[in-house]
Amino acid sequence: MKTQQAIKVFSVVCLAAGMLIFMGANPSAECECPLSSSIKVKVEQTFQRLLADEDTDGDAKITIDDRQTGTSAKGDKKFTLESPDGKCAVVNDTCQLSLLLQELALARENGARELEVTPAMMAERPADRISRLIRERYWDALTRRIDAEHLSAMLTDEKQVSVDGYRHLYVPGDDLAAFAYFEKAGSLHPEWKLKVGLLPENITPEYVRGLDGRHGILSLRLIDDNGAIKGVPFVVPGGRFNEMYGWDSYFESLGLIADGRPELARAMVDNFVYQIEHYEKILNANRSYYLTRSQPPFLTSMALAVYNSGSKDAAQKEWLAGVFRAAIKEYRQVWTGPERLTGTGLSRYFDSGRGPCPEVEPRHYDSMIRPYADAVGLSPAEWLAQYEAGKIASPEMDKFFIHDRAVRESGHDTTWRFDNRTADFVSVDLNSLLYKHETDIADTIQNELGGSLRMPDGAVETPKPWRDRASRRKAVMNKLMWSQEQGMFFDYDFINRKRSGYVSATTFYPLWAGIATRQQAAALVKNALPLLEMPGGVAATAEKSRGPVTEARPQRQWDYPYGWAPHQMLIWEGLSNYGYGQDARRLAYKWLYMITRNAADYNGVIPEKYDVAAMTHQVFAGYGNVGTQFSYITKEGFGWMNASFQVGLKLLTPEMRDKLNGLAKPEQVFAKSRP
Questions:
Q1: Is the pTM value of this prediction over 0.70?
Q2: Which of 221, 255, 269, 587 is such that its CA lies 20 to 30 A from the CA of 245?
Q3: CA dist list (Å): 217 to 60, 146, 243, 264, 561
Q4: Which of 491, 608, 611, 636 is catalytic?
Q5: Which has the closest alpha carbon to 604: 121, 135, 57, 62?
Q6: How far is the CA of 351 from the CAs of 37, 86, 211, 283, 383, in angstroms?
Q7: Does residue 413 have an active-site annotation?
Q8: pLDDT tens digits, one per residue of 113-137
Q9: Contacts (Cβ under 8 Å, ≥6 apart) of 442
Q10: So where are the chain's domains?
């Protein structure tokens, strides 16, 4: 009886509210009906009214920070929807209000005058919504091609500005067909102000330095599609990173495969093969200032992920063979070439370029330059300008820039892990990746390619030499990098002949690569995980290793307390490989909870990185946090963050996924959640 009475009272309230609207009263003050059925609203009017009422800090988003001012500060976190025919309904809380703003923004972009707001639209569970947007929208928004149809989007990138007023595109010297194609495209579009450059056969550091002020995009693979020339597609990280990045692409490919898009992941592999064939290496990214630098090598893992997602027919095997020929070429020319192979038998990161990196933002080097600038009475910017002009000599800064370039090849730019001496270390991560290359090549030749692989020069590759290489690398890594006392792998300083002692998430790479013994895996879980596991996942390094943050030793983005998607994904897989699936699921849940909680509280934000100690996307080290600057709705998320969400969801049990959608905290899901 009480329930029936309540329903009657509630119905009367809703009817009265509707009458008030019809009679011209202010429904925002009177309507108390929650959204229980569809209601059509005027898009522009509702959009503007919602912003005026709820975006109290004026950042073009509706977030929990809006509670601090205006009506939200009084706890009045609700908004009344009004239809032209006099209906009304109330939408409550930050998550639903930001979701409403996103849907209105999309309708507005599509030119719709009205939007039908449904209970299902407002009730979409947060983790399910993130996953759906990644699958249905974000991957497509991050996809690029370099061809006549799509080139204008690349050329308007902020990094394409040059001193001569032109936008530059560079083509490999041995791809004359591509050069002619882009020359013609540029002539047909004078508004592009495009200059197409043909790279020399021998690309030297001096040549690349000589491009300063005229740097540009590098062409990738073109294909003939029934007479139409098209660029092979690729996924970019997002935001200011509007090109194809090296190791980002591997993790993005895992997300694409998880979402049923293996053809796009395969296209990225094809672009990497093109880079090896024409630029001699997989580049940090396809910009001309990256021609002297590679990125962490994941090609064999990426190719096998694509191959294992398909039919494995004869055509696929031939494709795989071509990729592995390229991987072997890069392995020999780059990773075991004279610049990167050390006397230890292990490899290091390196960049053959010289001087400051052109891609860094202004004042990035100030903390390092200041002591030298102060000594001669100059500002850091003035000192750097004179240094680059050859008017100031500094052997110390010459060395610094060699190491600074090397840390950028590592992908971990920047960190105190190498103490500004990256090129003096053989690192756990790089040599784990190369071990994985060696075992992948051996296993693939034996199991998929009939026992041998003929190279372009006629040489034949067989499994045994590759197994021997892997065995030697593993032995040296155990000798130089494994600390029995501390139960962890550490980078090795081959100049000073000692292990670094700096605790990094990369200590888990040997689990992912299959190097570690069962005993070593147990030791890592016991010793390293407690130092690195945070409320939001795994930190890039341990807090004690990073040390205090000072003006002379500022916070760096690949150190504690920040966490990154590639580390999470590799650690989840590594732990699962060794039977620590529950630990992997706990870490995955923490990471996904942090992403979902931040998205729910901050208008759907999916950024580049997080502070995993504080579980927030509000990170300001390095280049800030790409993916946080948007109005009304994020359009693309961030490449490897999108991938980590989709891959992580597949690790969770259905019950865990339900709890994630309910925003249950990790300690509510795992009885012994660390820490």
A1: yes
A2: 587
A3: 32, 9, 8, 21, 34
A4: 608
A5: 62
A6: 61, 67, 16, 11, 23
A7: yes
A8: 999 999 999 999 999 999 999 999 9
A9: 463, 464, 466, 467, 470
A10: 2-124, 141-309, 350-409
- The count of other CB atoms within 10 Å of the CB of residue 145 is 19
In terms of Cα–Cα distance, which of 128, 258, 132 is closest to 663?
Answer: 128
Prior bond of 292 cis (ω within 30°): no
**pLDDT average, residue stretch 343-349:** 98
Return the biggest CA–CA distance within the chain: 91
Is residue 349 within 8 A of residue 409, CB to CB? The reply is yes
Q: Which of 413, 440, 448, 559 is catalytic?
A: 413
Exposed / middle / buried, residue 672 (Cβ in 10 Å: 0-12, 13-18, 19+): exposed
| Amino acid in position 546 | R
Structure tokens at 246: 């090296």
- In which element (H, E) is residue 436 found? helix 428-447
CB atoms within 10 A of CB 273: 24
| pLDDT tens-digit readout, 471-512 | 999 999 999 999 999 999 999 999 999 999 999 999 999 999
The phi, psi pair for 663, rounded to 5°, reads: 55, 40
Q: Which helix (H) or strand (E) holds 402?
A: helix 395-409
- Over residues 369-377, the mean pLDDT reads 95
Q: Which of 29-43, 295-309, 332-346, 652-666 has the lowest mean pLDDT?
A: 29-43
